[in-house]
């Protein structure tokens, strides 16, 4: 449930860590077990964009029906802990652009923290669901666009108030 006032952080217990924070234009994203935590910017230029993706890879890699992402300039990301606890899996076989997508997961709990494209150097695709301040899911990180809407599962209507695209945007 979203708090109606989004001016204060709303950090419910989710996963094992309880030390996430949201202050000014910096906030944390933490994996499910708490081993990996990073700090990212909630404003431009560090925060580049926000989007939903319904492509088939995103179904499989999130074990869900779509991915909700935000793109951050790497220079603005600071790891609080656990960078060494990330493991990587990369492939290019199913990527429409032929780019290699490298996915970084927490070795302990498997949370997908980061996705990097060879065609988009210097940027990281982080996951809205890993952000500790749930108000940011509704505000600064609300998806701007939704891509591969043409691949969306029939029973899901898509993001409300989110610009729709049948195919790829990024
Ligand atoms: Zn973890
Ligand atoms: Zn996708």
Automatic annotation (TrEMBL):
GO terms for molecular function: carbon-sulfur lyase activity; metal ion binding. Residues 22-154 form the CENP-V/GFA domain. The keyword Lyase applies. The keyword Metal-binding applies. SUPFAM superfamilies: Mss4-like (SSF51316). Keywords: Lyase, Metal-binding, Zinc. Gene3D superfamilies: glutathione-dependent formaldehyde- activating enzyme (gfa). InterPro entries: CENP-V/GFA, Mss4-like_sf. This is CENP-V/GFA domain-containing protein.
């Amino acid at each position: 449930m979203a708090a109606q006032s989004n001016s204060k952080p709303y950090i419910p217990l989710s996963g094992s860590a309880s030390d996430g924070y949201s202050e000014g234009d910096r906030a944390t994203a933490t994996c499910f077990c708490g081993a990996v935590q990073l700090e990212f910017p909630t404003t431009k230029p560090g925060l580049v964009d926000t989007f939903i993706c319904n492509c088939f890879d995103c179904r499989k890699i999130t074990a869900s029906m779509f991915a909700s992402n935000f793109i951050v300039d790497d220079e603005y990301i600071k790891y609080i802990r656990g960078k060494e606890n990330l493991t990587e899996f990369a492939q290019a076989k199913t990527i429409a652009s032929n780019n290699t997508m490298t996915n970084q997961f927490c070795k302990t709990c498997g949370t997908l923290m980061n996705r990097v494209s060879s065609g988009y150097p210097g940027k990281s695709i982080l996951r809205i669901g890993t952000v500790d301040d749930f108000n940011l899911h509704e505000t600064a990180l609300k998806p701007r666009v939704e891509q591969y809407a043409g691949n969306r599962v029939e029973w899901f209507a898509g993001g409300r108030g989110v610009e729709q695209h049948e195919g790829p945007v990024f």
